[in-house]
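Case study.
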Amino acid sequence: MTIKEELAQRASAVENFLEQCLHDRHIPNRLLAAMEYSLLAGGKRLRPVLTLSFAGMLGGDEAKVMPFAASLECIHTYSLIHDDLPAMDDDDLRRGRPSNHKQFDEATAILAGDGLLTEAFVLMAESSLKGGLPADRVLRAVSVLAAAAGAGGMVGGQAVDMEFTGRTDVPLDELLAMNAMKTGALFTEACECGAVLAGAPEADVDNAREFGRSVGVAFQIMDDVLDVVGDTKTLGKPAGSDEAMGKTTYPSLVGLEQSKELADACIQEALDRISTYNGREKEFLVGLSRYIVDRVC
Amino acid sequence: MTIKEELAQRASAVENFLEQCLHDRHIPNRLLAAMEYSLLAGGKRLRPVLTLSFAGMLGGDEAKVMPFAASLECIHTYSLIHDDLPAMDDDDLRRGRPSNHKQFDEATAILAGDGLLTEAFVLMAESSLKGGLPADRVLRAVSVLAAAAGAGGMVGGQAVDMEFTGRTDVPLDELLAMNAMKTGALFTEACECGAVLAGAPEADVDNAREFGRSVGVAFQIMDDVLDVVGDTKTLGKPAGSDEAMGKTTYPSLVGLEQSKELADACIQEALDRISTYNGREKEFLVGLSRYIVDRVC
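After joint prediction, the assembly is written out as follows.
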């Protein structure tokens, strides 16, 4: 099985969970349709897969971690819906389909995002209350994940990204700092939460967190690279949209070649963090790391 | 001290906490300003005050419950910011000042709301991790509060409210059901969470929840009544805005007099739920309940 096939298989397990997780919540029909339109629109499910893989590698029970892992995908999906809004990036297309506010309407898209973000915390709590994970572990994971998703993390990164738009003089360190918040924080906590939920020793939690941090930077750099070298069909969104919006990106700052080298260096840092582990999950994480810099979409 | 003065004093204690709670979060300046613009814009702080009062009445430590109580105000504030957006109710005024998206911009207002909602969960987790409340109690409270704030509760209620706008044929039971989600769910859980965090027996948790449910309905009815009989200066928003937007309200359905009677009946149900308790907090809750139907703003 190639790493792409293995990732797809694991993503499929996450999707099976996502497909049923909203159905006993008494959500009004149209709102539920809007939430599921984006939540079940495909995607690589990298964040929940990372959570599950770290939990598994460090002795956790993957089945018990699933609701928590799924919550990361709810948070990621809400951020995409809100980022696409006319007041934000004003994107009409997402994963090859109309973005949420084009398919429904702006009010529904805002509420679908709000609903998915809030639902994420229901799922996290349920991983303990129904799933049996210890409450103290789950609460610690809730704390770091919420901080990463919030105004000091992902939400703050999007705010800074909006301020950067139209500026051509953003220096590399500021771009890295913005991406560390906007994209990196959720990758970081996807990995850290897997370790925390497994009840791993602090040294392993540190390794998981730093692995996630490095992979998150590499992922964002490659996203910028693919926006330049990819085509609209493969990307599921218009290629070249960063340049069209006047966004400072890694390729626009340091060129394609050096961007790729920067991503490779990040992945090497990530691999160093997990070099002492063994087994199937470790091998998967190694393959996944390489896939992130070699992928074409 | 009148009940209004006592409420103001308790609200002030909540505000002292809210004023510092975002300051160590590394939030980008403009986003922080937008979040605090709405979070510190005054208001009665009814939801956190209810949480603290129920916790106190049922033997909990109010100081330890404060971060959790404050999280309810973050959630309430985020909902106001998003509800005011042009795509939603398109309100230019809130508490006598420009609404968030008028003072800042739409993108910042969306992100300020997202940030406050997420920050609420950081605060909840901290009430255990830093504040010392037992993790299992906090996690149970997180679960019911998130469910109440989400797509099956407050967010879903706003979605249904949007669908109702322009319809003049909404029956009373559907209006009650919508308001139970949009406004009632947060009042319900403000009270229930106070009891849960105090470690109260299930019978007390039930009483707290049902008290909150009844008070929430009464509060919404009186909000509709005040929109008709209040003036713009006292309300801090344009009077008569419900009618201008073609919203079905209690007064438009059953008239002012019967609306007031309905609210009184709800308050009586609430008072019945706490009749067997004693002490200062019980007296405060009785006074607060009466104030909710007698207030002028």
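Observations recorded in class. Chain A touches chain B through 55 residues (CB under 8 Å). The domain at 3-290 of chain A is CATH 1.10.600.10 (Farnesyl Diphosphate Synthase). We will return to this complex in the next lecture.
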